[in-house]
């Protein structure tokens, strides 16, 4: 029996390489669509982020806001589903990334751990934007950037090692 836990990605058997590659590809497509949705709803800006969660500012009582503040129940649902699903996403990609041979040591640990911190910061931050101050949108943006950057760095390394890097003969 192969001792898979002692192997690196490039040493995985062909069928396991395909499984890992397709898993990370599907996750990347899903995460990419999510990133597009973030841009679509917030225009990747602090003002757009604040408006998306806290609602549009109105100048007088007769103005109708372009966006209403997110209700408590919707924020609760968004937070619940995203924290759970993104935890699984980063568990899967971090688990596969663990076996890479390109990034090692502290940097590997940072890339594996950081997204879990950013999940809490990002989805906790939207509550701060909604109920405390719209300025927390910068906090949400920063943690989101770190989370997505970690994901795409890990995915790129995995794709490279599974498809290009070969086992030394």
What is the topology?
Elements: H1 14-42, H2 46-54, H3 72-97, H4 105-131, H5 137-163
Account of the protein in words:
By secondary structure, this protein is mainly alpha-helical. The chain has one domain (10-56, 68-163). Helices cover 70% and strands 0% of the residues. The protein is elongated. The mean pLDDT is 93.
N- and C-termini, Cα separation: 21 Å
How many domains is the backbone divided into? 1
What's the oligomerization state?
Answer: single chain
The count of β-strands is 0
Q: Provide the gyration radius in Å.
A: 20 Å
Q: Strand portion, in percent?
A: under 5%
User: Which class do the helix and strand fractions yield?
Assistant: mainly alpha
Please tally the helical runs, counting DSSP H or I stretches of 4 or more residues: 5
Low-confidence stretches: none
Overall pLDDT score: 93
- Main sheet, how many strands, which sense, barrel? none
User: What is the string of SSEs from the N terminus onward?
Assistant: HHHHH
Helix % is 55-70%
Global morphology: elongated
What keywords describe this structure?
169 residues, mainly alpha, 5 helices, 70% helix
Give me a quick take on this structure.
The chain is mainly alpha-helical.
């Amino acid at each position: 029996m192969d001792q898979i836990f002692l192997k690196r990605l490039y040493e995985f058997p062909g069928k396991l390489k395909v499984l890992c590659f397709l898993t990370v590809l599907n996750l990347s497509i899903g995460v990419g669509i999510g990133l597009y949705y973030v841009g679509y709803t917030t225009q990747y800006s602090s003002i757009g982020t604040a408006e998306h969660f806290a609602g549009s500012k109105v100048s007088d009582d007769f103005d109708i806001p372009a966006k209403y503040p997110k209700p408590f129940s919707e924020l609760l649902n968004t937070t619940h589903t995203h924290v759970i699903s993104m935890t699984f996403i980063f568990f899967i990609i971090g688990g596969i990334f663990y076996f890479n041979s390109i990034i090692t040591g502290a940097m590997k640990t940072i890339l594996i751990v950081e997204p879990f911190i950013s999940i809490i910061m990002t989805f906790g931050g939207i509550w701060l934007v909604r109920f405390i101050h719209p300025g927390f949108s910068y906090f949400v943006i920063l943690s989101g950037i770190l989370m997505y950057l970690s994901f795409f760095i890990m995915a790129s390394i995995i794709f490279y090692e599974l498809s290009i890097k070969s086992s030394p003969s």
